[in-house]
Amino acid sequence: MAERETSAALSGRRILVVEDEAIVALWIADVLAMAGAVVIGPVGFVREARALAERETLDCAVLDYKLPDGTTAPVADLLAARGVPFVFATGYDAGPLDPRYSDRPRVQKVFASEEFLAAILSVLAPSAPAN
């Protein structure tokens, strides 16, 4: 997808970023912001992610799987219950991920911005941005 089309598709989209590695979190936030998204977070702990997932209006989320205080499975559960799509961005292969979410898109660290944005767009289309 062309850069202009990506920016149009992500413009105003509210995307939660859950990542405990600061450099990776900042890179993800930067890629999303440059594509026009509104970044919620980033946060690096499950408890923080759950709090944001409960109170924020979200279009999508990016979840690292393993954080210092546990896995993001409880966050994924909350997002799924709210109908918020999400993508796993993790260094783990599919094996360690919760089997309930084996069908969710996953980008393997280290990934290129194009691969990452394609995964985000795949879960957003064709929904309208949250208000």
Structure description:
- The chain has helices spanning 3-10, 22-34, 46-55, 73-82, 113-124; strands at residues 14-18, 38-43, 60-63, 66-67, 70-71, 86-90, 106-108.
- It has one domain (3-124): Rossmann fold (3-Layer(aba) Sandwich), CATH 3.40.50.
- It has five helices and seven strands.
- The two termini are 25 Å apart.
- The strands form two sheets. Strands 2-1-3-6-7 form a five-stranded parallel β-sheet, sandwiched between helices. A two-stranded antiparallel ribbon has the order 4-5.
- Strand 1, helix 2 and strand 2 (38-43) form a beta-alpha-beta unit.
- It is of the alpha/beta class.
* Class derived from helix and strand content: alpha/beta
Total beta strand runs: 7
CATH level-4 homologous superfamily = Response regulator
CATH topology: Rossmann fold
CATH class: Alpha Beta
N-to-C SSE series?
Answer: HEHEHEEEHEEH
Report the major sheet: 5 strands, parallel
| Helix fraction by DSSP (H/I, runs of at least 4) | 40-55%
Q: How many domains would you count in the coordinates?
A: 1
Helical segment tally? 5
User: What does the overall shape look like?
Assistant: globular
